[in-house]
Specification:
The complex is a heterodimer of chains A (485) and B (629). With 485 residues, chain A is mainly alpha-helical. Chain A has a domain at 265-485. Helix content of chain A is 75%, strand content 3%. Chain A has helices spanning 2-17, 23-45, 51-54, 74-93, 102-121, 125-146, 151-179, 186-191, 196-213, 222-229, 232-254, 259-264, 266-285, 290-310, 314-345, 356-359, 361-374, 381-394, 402-428, 434-437, 444-462, 465-470, 472-481; strands spanning 55-61, 66-71. Chain A starts with a helix and ends with a helix. In chain A, 67% of the residues are buried. Chain B is mainly alpha-helical and 629 residues long. Chain B is built from 26 helices and two strands. In chain B, helix 10 runs antiparallel to helix 15 (325-352). In chain B, 55% of the residues are buried. Classes of the chains: A mainly alpha (485), B mainly alpha (629). Chains A and B meet through helix 1, strand 1, helix 5, helix 6 and helix 7 of A and strand 1, helix 5, helix 6, helix 24 and helix 25 of B.
């Protein structure tokens, strides 16, 4: 029941909004719907927390033996919560952004929410593929219609790149379908026992799809352009939630399904991940556009998650899941800040800004806390995940190079401080200039959103235990499938 | 001892009140909250200390912080001899400095006044977590927390870009050390499965020498960042951009001693890793000497004190490297007294001189600032190691331990001590002796600071004078070293493993006498030389220029680290655009035809496309339902 509600609410709202003519009504409806989803999710975590409510299974395509099978396990709970937590904040924080055809904008946003939730809930490979595409397509339209400069060019690249990945995934899923004796059911995939050679083809296909989506170095070049060009509300969806689809894919559909190949080729991917972490961090130091800076920092952060998946250990995998959530809300916070700055000053160029702290103390305070979370300061949410991931990588029984990965990847802890503080300093501190001298503090809606995010950051950072508990089952499953302790 | 949580709790409350209500609180109220919470912590700390002194120690678990698999990291506090002693130093000196700040910062607007006290309270909170933590993770929370507060306070006057640069530099250099700390903790976790001190230390002798060396070396890297040792010391002199009480509290008395605390806490690991101990001895000695040479030629009153701090921290590391853990902790304590005193005294001078910090423009202040002058003189005598002031005892204990490691370490240590006497009395004489060299305007406004500033000076001067009697060496009186006796349970295991090379009492007395005579000689020389100081326009040359420019270490780092990192960032940025992305685009062009097809789908009706997709999905479902029937 819960999964169906979670998907239907945004889906129906999204479809309905195409026929709502008033922009403000459309925005309000979308906001209400996203709040409703949040309430349902909160109920699912508390009063409805029983298998009776949390799963839904009905036949869909009998010919292909594919089913409408949705379920909420620990990881889907985390990611669905992330999705329904972010959407109201995204809509509310961009409340004052002017979008032409605002009704369609919000309609598409709702449809992508439905797609994202479907991705996290599906326990059937074909269904998963369907929602994977459903999440992508509305975002494609959003970018190409409401994006900034060069939007068509950038969006086509984004679309083709990720669509190509999806096709590989479909092929991989069909290969699995055949191996599983004509079933798309996740449970059947988990029963498979294949030789590493047999797994390789499937691994390659799925890995390509996820690598592009996350993105993994060197498949990342669509991402900074897209984040920069997309309207900020859409960038929020892309980076806070959609980037997690790829990591989610690794944990749900790759590592436990083709464990031997994951083990065997783990070092290759882990090496790419470490290179990507360092590469993106170095580039971030030199970025002048706030959006591109955050885009590259995101590549570095996701790189660590990929590393921890391919140099796995029990705590490390749990860390990945925690970090997916943490990174989601932290980067959302960064975008909210950037959106507020862009709306106020009409620029995202670091070199044009400076001294904002004098006129906008509360924006500064919130930003500093979010930035600190981004660089994994203890007692913020990201510390928990990063600590567990690095610790897991260093002690991983699956690789000989755990120490090398940790030391090299650990350098991003320093580099992260370099680019983050450089940004804070050049945007907020120092003397004001003509542009920033006339600033006022941020509007109420932005303050509310940032306050909620900051409270979330601190709560999770001080008492991560309830979230950690959600990640135990899957971590256990993956390690078992890979024959690691 | 369950009430130990109150100790960090009070400053946290102070931080929240002053931080959140900074728009509405009046300045006096901010001052009362800010200082009051630290006083409350101090009172609780005294109670805890009394209990520890009576023989009780405890580990208090508040809640389960992080756990996975077999790993449990509780949010727990450890109250024992070492931590209770540090609690007293932090909250005691912390309170005096808060009190001092209430007047020193009075010209700030009430908003920034509250921000200042909020940061300062947050700092004390973090420092208390660092000291109380019962495992490396809780310690690390405080460890990073103090780094953050230091960043916030160095950059407190954020409009000045120089200051915020200094703040950034401090944070990043600390982060380099923090990575070392983290690597040590991860390594430790993977080998022992725990971060809790008592469990780790119980398992210490089961770890291989190789693992111990790696873990301790990484921990030491962490310590070089926080405690400003070579190669990560350059942030500390720049940190003087912060308000002077901050320099006293954070960059002299407490935070920078965190590395010493951490190593003293982990003493058994270091005792079992002789290679690391030698490294510490070398780095400590090198830092003590290098910083002392730079201090000889600095003209900014705070910069002299900053390099002096780096140098004194070097002495503490000499103690740690030589296995004299008690000596190192003893020097932390006495140094906290006299360096806080000297910084606050400097603050009083700067306050009187209207933000003038260059000692070339001072002189003859002894008459106008009698209290500041007298207390400052006591501080100088204490740091120079004149008996029976506190610095004499603690420095002597470290030098004696260095002697045990070899004559060379002792000689180098003494050379450093002589330089200390020289630069401190150069500073003293140029500031307080001779005639006034500032402007008439400044001279006209010269005044002694108010009581809230001089009372802390007097109290600290008393502590600096008599603090040394807590550790009277055996050469004067057997079993009079109270501190050694008190801390012995903490260092018990290490002491049992150490081979001591006690020198004979006669040698010790003789060496003490010679060193003291030399120090007095140097003091007299510097005093008379710099009392007659006159402003000149001569530029230094040769070694003097080298020292004035701090051995050009900052320039070296700029060339070897900063520039290459920036260049790499630019290079990778170009590679991304013209390398990887160009390949992707090339591949893309070959499928341009396909892209045109996709574009057609987007011709106008955005909604219809998605609608079609959903309808398709539902249709398939409906067909299926019918087929089944």
């Amino acid at each position: 029941m819960v999964p169906v509600l979670l998907i239907l609410i945004p889906l129906l709202t999204g479809l309905g909004l195409f026929w709502v003519k008033s922009d403000s009504a459309a925005r309000t409806l979308a906001f209400m719907a996203s709040l409703a989803s949040l309430c349902i999710m909160l109920a699912a975590l508390t009063v409805w927390d029983s298998p009776k409510y949390l799963a839904y299974d009905h036949v869909w395509l009998g010919i292909l033996n594919s089913r409408f099978h949705f379920a909420l396990d620990g990881m889907s709970k985390l990611l669905c919560l992330l999705t329904v937590f972010c959407f109201p904040l995204i809509i509310y924080s961009t409340w004052n952004n002017k979008y032409p055809d605002s009704n369609r904008f919000h309609a598409l946003l709702m449809l992508s929410q439905a797609g994202l939730l479907g991705v996290f809930l599906s326990m059937d490979a074909l269904l998963f593929y369907f929602f994977w595409e459903l999440a992508l397509i509305p975002l494609y339209f959003l970018c190409s219609r409401w994006g900034g400069e060069k939007r068509i060019q950038v969006t086509i690249k984004f679309f083709l790149y990720t669509f190509l990945g999806s096709l590989f995934m479909l092929i991989g899923m069909i290969m699995l379908y055949n191996k599983a004796g004509g079933s798309f059911a996740y449970a059947d995939f988990l029963k498979l026992k294949m030789a590493p050679g047999e797994e390789f083809g499937i691994f390659l296909m799925l890995m390509l799809a996820f690598a592009i989506k996350m993105p993994l170095f060197p498949f990342h070049t669509w991402q900074p352009d897209t984040y920069e060009t997309a309207p900020t509300g859409v960038t929020m969806v892309l980076s806070a939630i959609m980037a997690k689809m790829g990591v989610f894919g690794l944990l749900r559909w790759l590592a436990p399904v083709v464990p031997s190949a994951t083990y065997q080729y783990g070092d290759n991917i882990a090496t790419l991940a470490v290179i990507g972490m360092l590469y993106a961090s170095f580039i971030a130091i030199q970025q002048n556009d706030l959006k591109r800076l955050v885009a590259y920092s995101s590549i570095a952060h996701i790189g660590l998650m990929i590393l921890a998946v391919f140099a796995p250990s029990y705590g490390g995998i749990q860390g990945v899941m925690i970090q997916m959530f943490s990174h989601g809300i932290n980067i959302l916070g960064m975008w909210v800040v950037i959106n507020a700055i862009e709306n106020k000053f009409g620029t995202r160029k670091i070199s044009d800004l400076g001294g904002i702290a004098q006129q906008s103390p509360s924006l500064t305070l919130f930003t500093v806390i979010i930035v600190l979370a981004n660089i994994a300061m203890p007692l913020t949410n990201a510390f928990v995940g990063e600590f567990m991931m690095f610790n897991g990588v260093l002690g991983s029984a699956a690789t000989k190079f755990g120490v090398a990965y940790t030391v090299a990847g650990g350098l991003t802890i320093i580099l992260g401080a370099v680019y983050s503080l450089r940004m804070v300093q050049n945007v907020f501190y120092g003397p004001t200039n003509q542009l920033t001298a006339k600033a006022t503090d941020i509007s109420l809606n932005v303050q509310v959103v940032l306050a909620i995010i900051v409270v979330g950051i601190l709560l999770m950072g001080i008492y991560p235990k309830p979230m950690l508990a959600l990640t135990e089952d899957l971590s256990h499953l993956i390690l078992n499938r890979m024959n690691l302790k | 001892m369950d009430y130990v949580w109150l100790v960090p709790f009070f400053p946290l409350i102070g931080f929240l009140l002053n931080g959140l209500l900074r728009n509405s609180l009046s300045k006096p109220l901010v001052a009362v909250i800010g200082s009051g919470v630290i006083l409350a912590s101090f009172i609780v700390s005294v109670a805890l200390f009394m209990q520890v002194k009576a023989g009780t120690t405890a580990t208090v678990t508040l809640f389960d912080f992080m756990s996975w698999g077999d790993v449990h990291i509780p949010f727990a506090f450890q109250v024992d001899q070492l931590s209770s002693l540090f609690l007293l130093i932090i909250t005691g000196i912390g309170f005096l400095i808060h009190l001092y700040s209430t007047v020193y910062m009075k010209d700030e607007s009430s908003l920034h006044y509250a921000r200042y006290f909020a940061y300062l309270n947050l700092f004390v909170f973090s420092m208390l977590l660092l000291v109380l933590g019962a495992n490396y993770v809780i310690m690390f929370i405080g460890w990073e927390g103090v780094g953050l507060c230091s960043y916030l306070l160095i950059g407190y006057w954020f409009k000045n870009i120089e200051y915020s640069n200094a703040a950034k530099k401090a944070f990043i250099m600390n982060r380099i050390g923090d990575l070392g700390f983290l690597l040590a903790v991860w390594w430790l976790l993977s080998k022992t499965g725990t971060t809790t001190f008592t469990e780790v230390f119980a398992k210490a002798d089961t770890l291989s020498g190789h693992n111990l060396t790696i873990i301790t070396l990484f921990l030491f890297v962490g310590a070089t960042g926080k405690s400003a040792q070579i190669p990560l010391y350059t942030w500390l002199p720049d940190a003087m951009a912060g308000p002077t009480p901050v320099s006293a509290l954070i960059h002299a008395a407490t935070m920078v001693t965190a590395g010493i605390y951490m190593i003293a806490r982990s003493n058994i690991l270091f005792t079992l890793a002789p290679y690391t101990s030698s490294v510490i001895l070398v780095i400590g000695t090198a830092t003590a000497l290098l910083a002392a040479t730079i201090a000889l030629k600095q003209n900014d009153i705070k910069k002299v004190l900053a390099y002096s701090t780096v140098s004194q921290l070097g002495y503490m590391f000499i103690g740690l490297g030589a296995g004299a853990y008690t000596g190192a902790v003893f020097h932390v304590m006495t140094h906290a007294f006299f360096k806080a005193l000297l910084f606050l005294g400097a603050g009083s001078v700067i306050h009187a001189m209207h933000h003038e910090q260059d000692i070339r423009h001072m002189g003859g202040l002894s008459k106008k600032l009698p209290v500041t002058h007298l207390t400052f003189l006591i501080g100088c005598l204490a740091i120079a190691g004149i008996p029976p002031l506190s610095g004499f005892f603690s420095k002597d204990e470290i030098l004696a331990a260095a002697y045990g490691k070899g004559m060379i370490w002792y000689v180098l240590g003494v050379i450093g001590a002589l330089m200390t006497a020289f630069y401190m009395f150069r500073l003293y004489a140029m500031t307080f002796r001779g005639h006034f060299r500032g402007t008439h305007e400044q001279e006209h406004h010269l005044h002694e600071s108010p009581a809230a500033m001089t009372i802390p000076l007097v109290l600290l001067a008393i502590l600096s004078a008599v603090g040394g009697f807590l550790g009277v060496p055996a050469v004067f009186k057997e079993n009079a070293h109270w501190l050694e006796h008190f801390l012995s349970p903490v260092f018990e295991k290490s002491t049992a493993l150490q081979v001591t090379h006690d020198m004979s009492h006669q040698t010790e007395l003789m060496l003490m006498g010679v060193v003291t005579a030399l120090v007095i000689g140097i003091i007299v020389w510097a005093w008379s030389k710099f009392s007659k100081y006159e402003k000149t326009n001569e530029e230094s040359t040769g070694i003097g220029k080298l020292l004035e420019n701090k051995w050009y270490v900052d320039e070296l780092y700029e060339a070897v680290v900063t520039k290459p990192v920036n260049a790499l960032g630019k290079l990778f940025g170009k590679a991304d655009k013209y390398g990887i992305d160009a390949v992707v685009n090339g591949l893309g062009r070959s499928v341009q035809y396909a892209s045109r097809q996709v574009r057609l789908l987007q011709s106008g009706q955005v909604g219809s496309y998605v609608l079609l997709m959903v309808i398709g999905m539902i249709l398939l479902f409906v067909i299926q339902v019918f087929l089944k029937k």
